[in-house]
Write a structure and sequence with these properties.
Length: about 575
């Protein structure tokens, strides 16, 4: 009997692995829970709005994907028909760069970076967790766009060369899998690096350096609109650099994929298989880096945890950062410390400044666009100043998390808390506005006095309007913000869509006032109009601020549930 016990235990022990019966049951259970959660969310008004926002995001990204896919398919067909596989290599490089750009710079989009840490509390194996992580990542916008583009390229090659259809499908499938793993890997490691304060400083310095480098090249490129800046370069130099680039790209994943298809077209299956194996090595390397990162998370790593500080003597108290007392100053200091310790939040705040640097010379061309660039560069730059703070303004209670319950126990009115948050966002907006104005003045010169006055008057209208709308959304449609990870939180789509529509309305009001006045030759007329609108928006903001306590009290349960929700 003693000899039979190990054998019987081995027969009753459930098989493990990401394709075992237990794992398949877990996948089915997760799918059922997700489906029931989706169905139950449609019973509420907010759930319906969230579903509508997700449909709109899907339609927008589908249009973004389908348009270029037609061009990529036609280009692949033309390149394969004439045997010019260099054109296919260019398309695959465009695919790779666009995929990684969307994955790394747009992580807050719907489904871009799923939050699956809650699955670690269940007996899910490490292999099953990786499979779920990749399957959830298939719904990311970057993945959908990449798959559609790769399919279009494969169809174009298959129509031109039907004999290469199967090999092209196999090669592009492996190339798509490599891009999926690479995107997941880059995003996972970016989150890990941004969780460290020293790394955030290095990333910020790199961003500023790249922005300044792009700004230096802009005047050089546009200094003479009638001549090309590289007209003095010799053809021999261009050919030499091109050959070096081609030799380098052949050993990289896009070059290996194209070379594998080209070798098979030349009836050289051994070299084609060798290129495919090298592409598989790149895929394995990307998967290994992702596995190292996910293994640390599966063992309980929490990027939001800060190292414990040593206890200090209470004989000498530390002076506060802000030298004035009161609840408003306390709220400002607390939120400021949250922002300074959050890599994703600093990332969002720095992105508009980088965009202004990079796209400082986007308007170029004839006399009409030159006048727009010179006269209206300042108000266009102010639009970017709102983008970095849009997520915080429209959800100013989302950073509190479990700490929101202390506000309800505190004798401080909620309108004072909201006022402190609005003061902080106002200071951050003024800082970004000053930096963007300096960039605009350096790039385009001082604006016309009438345009500068109209821009200032429009800001007096836009700031209270944005804060009033943001306070309403923060109470009626809140969601928990993850301060340590760059990913979309549940409930963010509806809030973000409503905030975007409100900001678009504020911008539309400014355009509808400035454009007719400029057409009628009255450049100073927008100033009094915006001042009247500023008085109205300030009145609305004060009314909303006065009603904050009543609205919070009526929605205390739902507000607490949404802000404290971890999934």
């Amino acid at each position: 009997m003693a000899d039979l016990e190990p054998a019987q235990a081995s027969r009753t022990r459930p098989a493990r692995g990401f394709l075992s019966p237990l794992a398949r049951q877990q996948y089915a259970a997760i799918a059922w829970v997700q489906f029931r959660t989706f169905v139950n969310s449609l019973r509420t008004r907010r759930g319906g709005l969230e579903f509508g926002a997700q449909i709109l995001v899907f339609v927008v990204f589908s249009l973004i994907a389908l348009g270029p896919s037609v061009g990529l398919g036609i280009g692949a067909w033309a390149a394969a028909s004439h045997g010019r596989f260099l054109g296919i290599a260019v398309e695959l490089w465009v695919l790779l760069l666009a995929w990684q750009f969307f994955a790394a710079l747009a992580p807050a989009l719907g489904g871009q970076n799923p939050e699956l840490s809650h699955l670690l509390r269940y007996p899910v194996s490490f292999g099953s967790w990786i499979v779920l992580y990749l399957v959830y990542g298939l719904a990311a916008p970057s993945t959908l766009i990449g798959i559609i583009w790769a399919t279009a390229i494969g169809i174009g090659i298959g129509i031109a060369r039907p004999d290469l259809l199967l090999w092209t499908a196999l090669t592009l499938a492996l190339f798509v899998f490599f891009n999926l793993l690479l995107a997941r890997t880059i995003l996972a490691w970016i989150e890990r690096w941004l969780a460290q304060r020293r790394t955030r400083e290095i990333v910020t310095a790199i961003f500023l350096f790249l922005a300044l480098a792009a700004q230096v090249f802009n005047p050089v490129y546009h200094q003479d609109p009638h001549s090309h800046p590289f007209s003095d370069v010799k053809k021999q130099d261009v050919d030499r650099v091109t050959n070096r680039i081609m030799n380098v790209q052949r050993v990289l994943p896009p070059g290996l994929a194209v070379d594998s298809i080209h070798r098979m077209a030349q009836h050289d299956p051994l070299y084609a298989l060798a290129d495919l194996l090298w592409l598989g090595c790149y895929t394995l390397a990307a998967g290994s880096l992702l596995g190292l990162r996910l293994q640390s998370e599966s063992r309980g790593e929490n990027l939001s945890e800060a190292p414990r500080r040593r206890a200090k003597s209470t004989s000498k108290l530390r002076r506060p950062t802000l030298d004035f007392s009161g609840p408003i100053a306390a709220v400002i200091e607390k939120d400021l410390r949250y922002l300074l310790r959050s890599g994703p939040m600093l990332y969002n705040l720095a992105a508009p400044l980088v965009m202004v640097f990079v796209f400082g010379g986007a308007f170029r061309g004839g006399q009409f666009t030159s006048s727009i660039r010179l006269e209206y560069a300042l108000p266009i730059g102010m639009v970017w100043a709102f983008l970095g703070l849009a997520r915080l303004i429209s959800n100013n209670l989302g950073m509190e998390g479990d700490g929101i319950q202390f506000y309800f126990l505190s004798p401080t009115p909620m309108r004072t808390v909201i006022l402190g948050k609005n003061f902080l966002y106002l200071m951050l907006f003024l800082l970004e506005a000053i930096l963007i104005s300096a960039v605009v003045i350096y790039r385009f010169g001082f604006p016309v006095p009438s345009v500068a006055a109209a821009t200032l008057a429009w800001l007096l209208f836009a700031i209270p309007a944005n804060f009033a709308i943001g306070n309403l959304l923060s109470i009626t449609m809140p969601y928990r913000i993850n301060m340590a990870r760059m990913r979309r939180e549940p409930g963010a789509a509806g809030n973000n869509l409503t905030s975007f529509c409100a900001q678009f309305g504020v911008l539309a009001v400014g355009a509808l006032v400035i454009a007719p006045c400029a057409f009628l030759g009255e450049p100073w007329l927008p100033v009094p109009i915006f001042l009247v609108l500023a008085a109205i928006s300030s009145f609305v903001y004060l009314r909303v601020l006065g009603s904050v306590d009543r609205m919070v009290h009526s929605r205390m349960d739902s507000l607490t549930l949404e802000v404290m929700k971890t999934r």
